[in-house]
């Protein structure tokens, strides 16, 4: 509801619960709108997919899944490094959204059966640093800022929210 109310009119984009994998579907079919599809009704999936949408530029928002590749679980070290390099910003934004809504955020290296390529603690530090940076430098993507402000107001969390919440050891706890 919050996403659709905020972004439908100007960006012709809606958030849709999906039955399977999340995806982004640009306008171009009979619906006439862009669709951010999140998995199985999971709130965390919705926040993650919204994060990707908030970061994607105009050109990427015209491409299915923003034109990103996806390499499934079982990635090599090189593939994992590439995955993490593109996931730092959306996961940092997702963490901000999670804290604004008062829900637990869980970092995702998304490579449970890989070749030991994951440095989850290192990735968590990068995501925490990016989340704090977004707040301290005011460098949030504009749509991300709008959504964050909407969540903070809706969940009445302005007073408890701040950069102090985003440290690597605090990643799994929400207030």
From TrEMBL:
Keywords: Elongation factor, Protein biosynthesis. GO terms for molecular function: translation elongation factor activity. InterPro entries: EpmC. Pfam families: EpmC. The keyword Protein biosynthesis applies. It comes from the Bacteria. This is Elongation factor P hydroxylase. It comes from Marinobacter halodurans.
């Amino acid at each position: 509801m919050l996403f659709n109310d905020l972004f439908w009119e100007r960006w012709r984009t809606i958030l849709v619960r999906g039955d399977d994998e999340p995806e982004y579907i640009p306008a171009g079919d009979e619906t006439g709108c862009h669709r951010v599809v999140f998995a199985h009704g999971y709130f965390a999936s919705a926040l993650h997919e919204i994060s990707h949408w908030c970061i994607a530029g105009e050109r990427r928002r015209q491409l299915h899944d923003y034109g990103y590749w996806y390499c499934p679980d079982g990635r090599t070290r090189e593939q994992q490094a590439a995955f993490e390099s593109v996931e730092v910003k959306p996961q940092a934004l997702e963490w901000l959204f999670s804290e604004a809504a008062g829900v637990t955020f869980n970092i995702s290296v998304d490579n449970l059966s890989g070749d030991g390529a994951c440095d989850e603690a290192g990735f968590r530090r990068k995501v925490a640093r990016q989340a704090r940076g977004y707040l301290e430098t005011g460098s949030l993507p504009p749509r991300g800022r709008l959504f964050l402000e909407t969540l903070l107001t809706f969940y009445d969390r302005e007073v408890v929210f701040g950069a102090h919440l985003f440290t690597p050891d605090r990643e799994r706890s929400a207030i």
